[in-house]
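Email to the structure team, subject: Transcriptional regulator model.

Hi all, the expression group asked for a predicted structure before they design truncation constructs. Nothing fancy, just the C-alpha coordinates so they can compare against earlier work. One-line instruction: predict Transcriptional regulator, return C-alpha coordinates.
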Amino acid sequence: MARVFQLLGKRWTGLVVAVLLPHPAHFADLRRAIPGISERMLSDRLTELGAAGLVVREVDEGPPLRVVYGLTEAGAALQPALLELGTWAEEHLPGSPPCPGELRK
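Reply from the structure team: attached below.
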Protein backbone atom coordinates (compact mmCIF):
# COMPACT_ATOMS: atom_id res chain seq x y z
CA MET A 1 0.00 0.00 0.00
CA ALA A 2 2.87 2.36 0.74
CA ARG A 3 4.21 1.93 -2.81
CA VAL A 4 0.79 2.79 -4.27
CA PHE A 5 0.50 6.02 -2.30
CA GLN A 6 4.14 6.88 -2.92
CA LEU A 7 3.24 7.11 -6.62
CA LEU A 8 -0.46 7.94 -6.77
CA GLY A 9 -0.49 10.08 -3.64
CA LYS A 10 1.58 12.79 -5.29
CA ARG A 11 -0.26 15.94 -6.23
CA TRP A 12 -1.76 15.80 -9.75
CA THR A 13 -0.91 12.14 -10.42
CA GLY A 14 -4.45 10.82 -9.94
CA LEU A 15 -5.85 13.57 -12.12
CA VAL A 16 -3.40 12.81 -14.91
CA VAL A 17 -4.47 9.16 -14.86
CA ALA A 18 -8.17 10.12 -14.69
CA VAL A 19 -7.87 12.42 -17.71
CA LEU A 20 -6.15 9.68 -19.70
CA LEU A 21 -8.69 6.96 -18.83
CA PRO A 22 -11.17 7.68 -21.65
CA HIS A 23 -8.53 8.13 -24.37
CA PRO A 24 -4.92 9.14 -25.04
CA ALA A 25 -4.17 12.86 -25.09
CA HIS A 26 -1.56 15.31 -26.30
CA PHE A 27 0.48 17.20 -23.73
CA ALA A 28 -1.36 20.49 -24.40
CA ASP A 29 -4.74 18.76 -24.01
CA LEU A 30 -3.66 17.33 -20.66
CA ARG A 31 -2.51 20.74 -19.52
CA ARG A 32 -5.87 22.29 -20.45
CA ALA A 33 -7.79 19.48 -18.74
CA ILE A 34 -5.97 19.99 -15.44
CA PRO A 35 -6.18 23.67 -14.48
CA GLY A 36 -3.36 24.83 -12.25
CA ILE A 37 -0.76 22.24 -13.22
CA SER A 38 2.47 23.69 -14.59
CA GLU A 39 4.16 22.31 -17.68
CA ARG A 40 7.10 21.18 -15.57
CA MET A 41 4.88 19.37 -13.06
CA LEU A 42 2.88 17.68 -15.81
CA SER A 43 6.08 16.58 -17.50
CA ASP A 44 7.43 15.22 -14.20
CA ARG A 45 4.22 13.31 -13.45
CA LEU A 46 4.08 11.81 -16.95
CA THR A 47 7.72 10.74 -16.63
CA GLU A 48 7.05 9.10 -13.25
CA LEU A 49 3.93 7.34 -14.55
CA GLY A 50 5.89 6.16 -17.56
CA ALA A 51 8.70 4.78 -15.39
CA ALA A 52 6.08 2.95 -13.30
CA GLY A 53 4.65 1.34 -16.44
CA LEU A 54 1.30 3.13 -16.26
CA VAL A 55 1.68 5.60 -19.14
CA VAL A 56 3.15 5.19 -22.59
CA ARG A 57 4.53 8.08 -24.66
CA GLU A 58 4.13 7.93 -28.44
CA VAL A 59 5.54 10.44 -30.91
CA ASP A 60 3.43 11.58 -33.87
CA GLU A 61 6.00 12.41 -36.54
CA GLY A 62 3.89 15.26 -37.87
CA PRO A 63 4.54 17.84 -39.05
CA PRO A 64 4.23 19.23 -36.51
CA LEU A 65 5.91 16.77 -34.19
CA ARG A 66 3.46 15.98 -31.37
CA VAL A 67 3.55 13.59 -28.44
CA VAL A 68 0.55 11.53 -27.36
CA TYR A 69 0.26 10.00 -23.89
CA GLY A 70 -1.93 7.00 -23.16
CA LEU A 71 -2.43 4.49 -20.40
CA THR A 72 -0.92 1.05 -20.52
CA GLU A 73 -3.04 -1.94 -19.55
CA ALA A 74 -1.76 -1.52 -15.98
CA GLY A 75 -2.71 2.17 -15.98
CA ALA A 76 -6.19 1.49 -17.33
CA ALA A 77 -6.66 -1.14 -14.61
CA LEU A 78 -6.73 1.72 -12.07
CA GLN A 79 -10.19 2.79 -13.27
CA PRO A 80 -12.24 0.75 -10.73
CA ALA A 81 -10.11 2.00 -7.83
CA LEU A 82 -10.38 5.62 -8.98
CA LEU A 83 -14.14 5.27 -9.39
CA GLU A 84 -14.39 4.00 -5.81
CA LEU A 85 -12.27 6.87 -4.53
CA GLY A 86 -14.53 9.32 -6.38
CA THR A 87 -17.63 7.75 -4.80
CA TRP A 88 -16.01 7.89 -1.38
CA ALA A 89 -15.14 11.57 -1.87
CA GLU A 90 -18.72 12.43 -2.85
CA GLU A 91 -20.04 10.74 0.29
CA HIS A 92 -17.43 11.82 2.83
CA LEU A 93 -16.01 15.11 1.57
CA PRO A 94 -19.09 17.31 1.35
CA GLY A 95 -18.76 20.55 -0.52
CA SER A 96 -15.79 19.39 -2.56
CA PRO A 97 -15.97 20.77 -6.08
CA PRO A 98 -15.77 18.30 -8.97
CA CYS A 99 -12.23 17.69 -10.13
CA PRO A 100 -11.07 17.89 -13.74
CA GLY A 101 -11.27 14.49 -15.38
CA GLU A 102 -13.72 13.35 -12.69
CA LEU A 103 -14.88 9.79 -13.17
CA ARG A 104 -18.51 8.78 -12.94
CA LYS A 105 -19.97 5.30 -12.61
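Helices lie at 2-8, 13-20, 27-33, 39-51, 73-76, 79-92. The CA atoms of residues 90 and 97 lie 9 Å apart. Ping us if the truncation boundaries need rechecking.
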